[in-house]
Amino acid sequence: MTEGSHGIDRLRGKATLREILEVATGFEASARDFYKDLTPKVSKRIRYLVEELAAEEQGHLDLLTALAQRTDIAEQVQQEIQRTASDSKFSDCLHVPDLGEQPDDQAVLQYAMGREHAAMGHYGELADTTPEGPIRDLFKFLASEETKHKLDLEKIYYEVVHRGGGV
After folding, report:
1. Is residue 105 within 8 Å of residue 160, measured between CB atoms?
2. What SS3 string covers 99-118?
3. pTM score, two decimals?
4. Is 133 left (phi over 0), alpha (psi -120 to 50) or beta?
5. What is the distance between the alpha carbons of residues 33 and 10, in angstroms, rounded to a whole number?
């Protein structure tokens, strides 16, 4: 290991899986709340999408909460793993923007795509660094889910922004 990479590792630090699950839970809760609050403000052509995103985030939140409460993995959640390169970007997503009372469809879709991209990368990195077991399985599942969401949002973005059509 080079001196430079050792320094970067020290800056990133380690976190317990419990701490990582807590941040992920906060991420999903903030996303759910953001989309729920946004639903009545967006145009009718993407309202269904924002409602679906809120429901998806609630589902992820339920999975994370249930996993964190399992007694059979109490030992695993105490394990420390290296923080991922995507950790700070993911944590930044806990703060949601104020898109105003009548948000533009394009702004909503851009924000949602960015958030899904951050989640996709972070959960993927966590799946790669977490020891085998139910926590790793959940991170793999969430990475896959976020990837699907991002691809769906990109298709809708293309329809709404580039083709000017409805969804």
Report:
1. yes
2. CCCCCCHHHHHHHHHHHHHH
3. 0.80
4. left
5. 34
- Tell me the C-alpha distance between 28 and 66, whole Å: 13
Average pLDDT in the 59-81 region? 89
Domain range holding 99? 14-162
pLDDT of residue 11: 43
Instruction: Report if residue 115 sits inside a domain.
Output: yes
- SS percent in the chain: helix, strand, coil, step 5: 75, 5, 20
Count of structural domains, the chain = 1
39: pLDDT strictly greater than 90:
yes
